[in-house]
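Minutes, structural biology subgroup

Action item carried over from last meeting: produce the structure token record for Universal stress protein E (Pseudomonas reinekei). EB confirmed the sequence was re-checked against the source entry. Recorded below for completeness.
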Amino acid sequence: MIRPLRLLFLAPFSQAAHCPGLEYAGDLARALGVPLHIAAFTDLHGAESAGPAGAECPDVVRQSVLALRQKWLKDESARLQEKGVDVHPEIVRASSSATEFAACAQRLEADLIIKDMQARPGQAHCGLSPQDWEFLSVSPVSVLYVQPGPTQIPGKVLAAIDMEFQAKEGDSDNHSIIEAARRLASACGAALHVISIYDTDAPGQGDLSRFDVRKQAFDDFARQHGIAREHRHFIPGAPANAICAYLQRSAYNLLVIGAANHHLLPSGIGLTAEGILEHAGCSVLAIKVPVAAAPIKTTAPDSIRHASS
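Output recorded by EB:
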């Protein structure tokens, strides 16, 4: 019997109240009809649980922290279960590190990880912390980062693809990205749009005939995936800046991008992806690419599982 898709929410350590990412994860699990695993990391021997310097009973402090963590997890799980979500909560006694997060995802055989974006001190926008960047680089599967604020499942999804590499023999990254976005949008009843940027900063891109060729290839690709003409957006500019500017003047709930573009950085994430994740202004699903040619292990027809390289 093939198991259903598994969603994994990584709960922040210091969460004393409800968080947007967990609400989002619950709504998404219910829309897909799949289980939601919640991993609440608690390092009882780390600085977070040690209490103030000079505390007489550090063990008491640690046990108090654990009890509060367990209560939060129990209460949040019960609330989601009342909404019809199949919840599988777990206290993970380990440090909140990228390697521990990745190990947990592998152990639970997660297909998609959901995590909150964190507000930055002194800044108006949210983004990824250094730990988030590290985790995205080592994560075995795709990661969905949820923007703070009112939570809702996507109503309008934008998939970003790179036509410069579509002609590459055997390239499947764009297909993986658009299929993930399409299946997710279908499950949530959302409109799906597709965007590709004609990189005007790249050598030789000033040729109008080259622009027309790329645009035609983009239209052909989008049509193959059933994207309506009015939902296709081919825009000239610098990729990260152009996509972020387009998002700022549009009303998308979710952006779907590849997490390892071909212009690779040492982090293994990609220059364009890094620029977008810093300034997207909406929730972002980072698909780990390239995708291995492996069967999708899910009983749900509208799944978003993607094997990692």
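Discussion: The two ends are 25 Å apart (CA to CA).
Next step: EB to file the record with the rest of the batch.
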